[in-house]
Design the sequence.
């Protein structure tokens, strides 16, 4: 795959990166249901074989389990193919109740970095990101400056190579930039969530900041394999079933119509709807990379096909009438 430089860093990344929220397993608040670790590792390893050179994870995914899996992956692949590891902190959990809370306290973040290093079994994390400026969204974001100062100190100590943020708005990005170099933003972006096109993407472009888009398939809804029947059969501990408005009426019918259009376009190129949905996100030059999730090796090829798909202006126009009339500000789960 071609490589793109991530913002002002020296990190060169493939257009597609593999995310690990969906493979984090069960037993926590934002689970996608039961997951076989063998399948997870197989998907990660196969993606690396196909040219994906970065894995995005977070301490909170599976309450540490996703990072453990990434650590196992790093031991399985040859050093010459070792993927870059991007992880996130600020969401912490009670080890007894498993309740998730948010902290930007410097000592909390520094402890999170050390814990992530242990789980990943690495000496340096390639990109460390503040997961949320505030959680839940809309809460106070006081403490951003002190948090980023702590990350800058960790970078100076060699524990992390570069600093990024996730789910920040423009005002918060400006606050962050005053403290230290921010090489990337990780925002939600899909054909169903387009609000960052108004202010955030133009700001990142002007600032030379990399963009790592997440939820590009809207938690699987735009994958082409999500039917009404499958949604109705999602396990009760799958957060999407009860918490995501996009998986319920009145949005669901319109969303599935959009998937049908993407599937028809995909047929012309010999790819599925998922590749078209990801290519739609990557059509913006400011988007450095798109995060996708695969729970089994068989899903990987259909996702990374997007790295070579270029939608024509006519195809983008074909999709436009099926986009939601609003810009879609629904930020899902803990991504």
Sequence:
């Amino acid at each position: 795959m071609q490589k793109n430089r991530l913002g002002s860093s020296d990190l060169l990344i493939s257009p597609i990166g593999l995310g690990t929220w969906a493979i984090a397993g069960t037993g926590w608040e934002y689970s996608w249901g039961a997951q076989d670790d063998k399948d997870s590792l197989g998907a990660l390893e196969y993606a690396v074989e196909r040219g994906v050179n970065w894995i995005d994870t977070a301490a909170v995914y599976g309450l540490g389990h996703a990072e453990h899996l990434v650590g196992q992956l790093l031991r399985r692949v040859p050093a010459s193919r070792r993927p870059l590891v991007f992880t996130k902190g600020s969401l912490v959990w009670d080890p007894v109740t498993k309740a998730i809370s948010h902290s930007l306290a410097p000592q909390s973040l520094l402890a999170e970095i050390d814990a992530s290093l242990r789980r990943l079994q690495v000496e340096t994390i390639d990109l460390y990101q503040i997961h949320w400026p505030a959680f839940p969204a809309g809460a106070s974001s006081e403490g951003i400056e002190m948090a980023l100062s702590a990350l800058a100190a960790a970078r100076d100590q060699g524990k992390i190579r570069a600093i990024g943020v996730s789910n920040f708005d423009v005002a918060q990005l400006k606050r962050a930039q005053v403290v230290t170099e921010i090489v990337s933003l990780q925002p939600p972006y899909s054909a169903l969530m387009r609000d960052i096109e108004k202010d955030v993407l133009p700001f990142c472009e002007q600032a030379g900041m990399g963009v790592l888009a997440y939820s590009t398939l809207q938690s699987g809804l735009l994958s082409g394999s999500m039917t009404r029947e499958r949604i109705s059969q999602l396990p009760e501990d799958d957060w999407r079933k009860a918490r995501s408005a996009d998986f319920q009426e009145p949005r669901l019918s319109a969303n599935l119509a959009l998937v049908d259009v993407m599937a028809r376009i995909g047929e012309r190129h010999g790819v599925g709807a998922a590749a078209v949905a990801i290519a739609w996100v990557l059509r913006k030059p400011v988007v450095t990379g798109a995060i996708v999730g695969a729970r089994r090796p068989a899903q990987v090829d259909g996702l990374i096909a997007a790295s070579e798909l270029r939608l024509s202006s006519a195809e983008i126009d074909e999709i436009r009438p099926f986009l939601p009339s609003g810009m879609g500000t629904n930020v899902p789960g803990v991504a």
Remarks:
- The longest strand covers residues 160-166.
- The longest helix spans residues 251-269.
